[in-house]
Every structure is written in structure tokens, then in C-alpha cells.
Amino acid sequence: MVSKHGVEIQARSVEEAVRLALEQLGMTLDQVQVEVLVDNVAYGGEALVRVTPLRPAQEPAGAARRGAQRVDAETEAVAKQVVRELLTAMGFTNCEVVAVDN
User: Fold this and answer.
1) What is the mean pLDDT of residues 9-26?
2) Per-domain boundaries in the chain
């Protein structure tokens, strides 16, 4: 289960559940608090952990840019050209590059 406060993960062991939670959060062990909610591994069951970031997650990159001004036409044209060249170099030849304001 994912919430704004962290994740709860069920797995075959506490270690595996913590590892999966860290992967899902994109964090390291020193950045989170781990609570073992259920540890029935010794009885053939599974473990359930809640892993919560010590600091609130950063705002998504788009949230910080919402108030930003639109780039000028020259900057947009250069950016589109760079993307076109990268796509061509990667073998994508029939792509249309379009700038979108989000």
C-alpha cells in the first residue's frame, strides 16, 4: 500500500520487504524509518513492514515549474533540434518533436 507517508510491503522476509520498499520509494535505509508490523516468517508466514521517509518527499519537478515563465522561441527551437538529433541518433527517424506547456 502506498500513501503520502510511506509504503507498506508484504514479503517472504523483513529484509526483502524493506528492500522492496526502499526501491519503491527510491531511498536508502538511512533516509527512512522502518516499522515491522507483522513477522510470521518463523511460522511459515510473511513479513509486513511500513517504511516511512524521515523527511517529506520532495515536490515533483513539475510542481516547482508551474509558476515558471515560458521559454523564448529561440530556446525552444534549439531544444527541439537537440531532441530531434538525439532521436535520430537512436534510430527514431519518423518522429515529430512538439513543445508542450504543462
Assistant:
1) 93
2) 2-53
